[in-house]
Amino acid sequence: MCLGIPGKVVSLNQAEQWAVVESFGVRKKIGIDLIDEEIAPGDYLMVHAGYAIGKIDQMDAQVTLEMWEEILDAE
Q1: What global pTM score does this model have?
Q2: Per-residue confidence (pLDDT) for residue 3, from 0 to 100
Q3: Mean pLDDT value across residues 28-57
């Protein structure tokens, strides 16, 4: 099972294949080598183990982030 967390693209460097994404107020530099779609600031990526594993739409990202918040609040 993969535990991915959506991250909003804050900045990116297409040439070096990395982006900075933000989730829950935390920014992290991740690899985007696995994404074959165009990426732009403001897009959402599903992130696992330091790499983007897929591009997702804003609605799906928000739903997933809300579920993560419920899980974290329960702990």
Answers
A1: 0.88
A2: 79
A3: 96
Phi-psi map region of 49: left, alpha, beta (phi>0 left; psi -120 to 50 alpha): left
- Residue 67: in which H helix or E strand, if any? helix 58-74
Kindly state the helix (H) or strand (E) to which residue 56 belongs, with its residue range: strand 51-56
- How buried is 46 (Cβ within 10 angstroms: 0-12 exposed, 13-18 middle, 19+ buried)? buried
Q: How many CB atoms sit inside 10 A of residue 51's CB?
A: 17
Domains located in the chain, CATH noted: 5-74 (2.30.30.140)
Lookup: tokens for 31 = 């690899």
Task: Return the structure tokens found at 69.
Answer: 């918040």
Phi-psi region of 61 (alpha: psi -120 to 50; beta: other; left: phi over 0): alpha
d(CA 16, CA 32): 9
